[in-house]
Amino acid sequence: MSTSVSHPCKQEREGSFFKLINSFAWEIGTLKKEMRRKNEPSEGNPKTDTLIGLGEEVGGLFLQASPCAGIRAGLPGARDSGYDSLHRRLSVLDKLVHTHTVWLQLGLRHQDATHILMDQPTGTFLVRKSAALQRKVISLRMDKDSAVPVKDFSVKESQYTFSLEGSSLSFADLFRLVAFCCISRDVLPFTLKLPEAIASARTSADLEEVAKLGAGFWDAQLCHRKEDSLSGSTAPDRPPTSAQRLVSLSTAPAHPWLQTRTPSELECCQSNGALCFINPLFIKVHQSDGKSTNTNPCGTAKQDLREEPVTNNLVHTYKDSCSPSLQICSSDHSVCSQSHRSNPKSLGTNTELQDNSSQTSCSQKPSATRIVSQLPPPRPPPPRFVTQRSALPDRQHSMPEKIPWINIPKEKVEERERSTSLLSRLGSSISISPSSSPPKRLNISSPIYIPWPSLPSSLSSLSSSPHQARTSLSSSQEDAQCHLAMEDGIIEKAIMRAKQFQRKTASTTMQDSSSPPQQLLTTTSELAHMQEGEEEVGEECSGGGQRLSDMSLSTDSSDSLDFSQSSAFFLPHLHDPSPPTVADFNNHLPLSIPPSHLPYSSMDQEEDDEDDENEEEPDYGVSLESDQDQDQDVTMVPPGRHTKRRPSASALVFQRALRGHLHKMSGVFNSLLTPEKRAIRKVVELSRDKGSYFGCLVQDYLSYMCEGATQTLQGYASGLELLQTVRQFITQMKSYLRQSSELEPPIESLIPEDQIDQVLEKAMHKCVLKPLKPVLSVALEEFQVRSGAWQELNENLSLAKVRQPQEMGVADMLPPDPVVIEKIKRKFHTMCKLYSPEKKVTMLLRVCKLIYTIMEDNSGRLYGADDFLPMLTYVLSQCALPQLDNEILYMMELLDPSQLSGEGGYYLTSAYGAMSLIRNFQEQQAARVLSSETRDTLHQWHRRRTAQRSAPSIDDFQNYLRVALQELDSGCTAKTLLVRPYATVEEVCKLCAQKFKVSDPENYGLFLLIEGSSQQLAPDTHPQKIKAELHSRPQAAPFHFVFRRVGNRNTLASSHLSHTPNLNDLSVTSDTQANLNDLSKDLSGPCPQVSLSLELNPSLRLSLPSSQLNSNSISV
Amino acid sequence: MAIRELKVCLLGDTGVGKSSIVCRFVQDHFDHNISPTIGASFLTKTVPCGNELHKFLIWDTAGQERFHSLAPMYYRGSAAAVIVYDITKLDSFQTLKKWVKELKEHGPEDIVVAIAGNKNDLGDIREVPMKEAKEFAESIAAIFIETSARNAVNVEELFQKISKQIPPLENPEVESNESFKLTRQPAPSVRRCC
Lengths: 1116, 194
Prior knowledge:
Chain A is mainly alpha-helical. Chain A has 51 helices and ten strands.
């Protein structure tokens, strides 16, 4: 091509590398019947045979998880057809993840577990939650010699990890723990054994079949017989019909993102002895490294390729965390892009737009997939904030239903694009970390430019060039038949591209010595300029050459190109919108990846910004240290290189490879997501999925709040009230998520118990507060202006500002100087831009810390509130930021109640107090006390906010009712049922009978248990109304709806109360028992059904204020 | 062992040594792991009590009159309030009485009240007789102790006494996913005995 001599050795290596890629493409082609041998010779690969083998190998490496990933990506058919032939085995982890509905039975009691496992072979297990230990346990079927047939091994959940009691191995989530135990017994008497049907499953469809049975699996014959029929039903070598695909889609809705390796890898890890934390990814690398000996010229490339998955993961992480690498990658891409496109400049914008749109769409994909699976017909895009994102689930190519999504008007995309870049700028300007440096800001904004050009899916991956992307956009229908993506020319083109690229790169490598590359570089950066006109272009122009020279793969073109622009085209497509943050790795995968900061690698730009800001780690710039994985790849990482650089090099390689042929690999990134991120992501996705109940609620709420902004506003008396409703909504949705099963897999399997609430809180902030923040800010200000408080506040602020520190109560301390005040103001400005109350509070804490530092520096002693509060008041008055008032209100009302008594709560309270003093400055000057009004406000605030601690749970939520099944022999089981407000008791009884699988529903009734009394509810009353009544009582007593046997109530009630094994669950104590019996007698009279309808409230209040009252009084 | 977070509010005139008591209490025990401490007005310390761990979240308040009106925000939700006076300043004891009254009227119902006469190392210039203070404390069923933050006298004891008065949780209130407890609220009673 246009380029020159490159170092022969390098070229050779590259050559083989790209041949490898080519061969890989070829392999894909082979798998597709459509392709056959047509393309094979087209590029004249001399070593095709070897390479095919290699490709297979590599494919195996990459694609083990593919069935799962494929389903998630919406291309299950493609996956199955393409790779099952090669990779029939599913890893243990895959199997576990797919079938968690079978073995993960948190609600089971020991007896149940014993009962189930009795019939099972030794080693069979369940994971349940022990009521006694309040912990998850693995209930394991012991062998014949054992004293007990089933033994529980408890699972320790530390802050971030899951481990077996007594074991020092800990895992990021429950799945990994169990998977490990399936392979190595560790502290168990023997390894866990998967039921035959699961163990022998060959495709994810098999697993789905099993998973559908849920707990019923154990009863079903299925678990006893080996099922061949299922696996036989899928013909892996043949591309499935679209119907087939649909089926598999629908049976595999929200797939867990756990990506897995084979068991042997796990084992390998252990024998290695290096890790406590098992991350199969790394292990795989290790393994394959051991196998491959690089004797032939191909060796390096081979190794490199093998290395890629891992490296790229790391790279991703890294990329996110640090801009230099990003720059490198992207610049490479621009080189590449240029070489690939006939008319890059003109194409640039379009492509970028598309890329961008596809990128944004990526974040939607999983939910979109889910939508598809649940509601086949196209769905109108959700309310606006979502629409933008949901623009283009390109992975849905394969699915005809997706076309509506794909055919998004270009203008929209463009619009989005623009706003994106705006946002990115904003993002960079609002980076808050005190330690954030310019590069970091770049970093913040950088993800914004990174497109997710799309189609991480296996086959369509080939169509990922800009041109191709457009094609897929426009002709999505064709692409919908995913195999069409493989149309003849494409692979050829891809290979051509690869070749071109290779040459370009080579020439780039020679940058120093030859002019053409120079030109190339220039053009590229020009291109970059053209594309975005951003000023960051070429910021690090100088560093390139040197780096190139160390690159063993000589793929690193340099830093010289602006990353943000060019990257737009070439970052690899990921399945997962958000690769993990290194910070998280730091926390969660301690042995896998060292600390470094990073936002997601980009899907959701704003999110990235936020996340970025949200990260507290001061040193974001830390790169990934070379870990076991990277280090193993000697070729990849030249010894002299700074660690920081490595990822970029490998990133480049990998991205290219990825872009071209290895899209399925991207699923692997998921496995690097920390469980917390994964969980949050899941919630966020669910919230955008209007096909889920949760998604519906959230989206409806959001559109109500946003679109009806003006009317909505008028509906509230004050900003306070507005915020309260928002908080209430968040709390309710949290409880809903906690108790519903819409999250898949259950959050308990990903997040240690004590972290769940926190994680859900974060997730809710993201799905609710993030879109609402702007609306809320505007609304709050309007309220303030309308009520005149704004003006008053401003007046008082200006009055207070001119006061001497002493007048504000600051005694014998040096007040902060104007420079510090400026600094504090900046922090406050940053704080205002955040949406998460938690992050805002963190920001506030930083300000407080700063004030403290100044105070202490000046005197050297410790100060308590006597000194701090006046100083804070003074500082706030000096800052003169009236908007702080609303910000504080926002935080106070929306912060997670559990945090209110902590440090954040304390300083928030102080800030609120200080602000109130300022707000009432004049008055205070006059009276030297706060108005009684302010006092009342404070008073009420605390009452309200502390009351929220016992805040509504799911059953308080209007469409839900929590009903307990009370059985003679088995204590209470509760379920949260969907009960419409006007559903009658009769209907609820039916529902209960069905849900609890009661065989003789006619003998059961719905009872209201309140303060130790129990009364049956009349069939025509409305439980939801009763609930509402009870809730509206000023001092709502705890109450429960219980579904239990009507006959023999006396015996039942009493025996239950006194003898249930589960009695600790039921602390209706014996003194109330008498009443209960009385009541039961009463009720079992001629008119057994107490009519409890709307008059309930008064009567209840009269009759049930305490348990001493005999409930006779209320019967009829 | 379950960790229980207990919010403790410090009340009292400015200069009586509220923060000194806390600083002494948490001295050398700064919990670096849990959260970096911003300043001495909010400190935490975890102490074992029975088979529980009590994590005191200690909220200091500003004693000046002008900030008096903010106090409710601080003592709301507190499990305990430590009202500090200076044994060398009669005024501070009068202020203490006002705080007791306010807590009775507006404070949390079952708040544990502890009265701490600080600076007992300055016994020679004492203005508040120990007996008087003790009697007052008994009359309101409050914990009473004289401390010296400077000499680290009785500071630990003060918090130990508070710890003992905090009723233990009957059952860990963890709600499992699939079952829930039918519980009566524990009867509010017998908290204030000495």
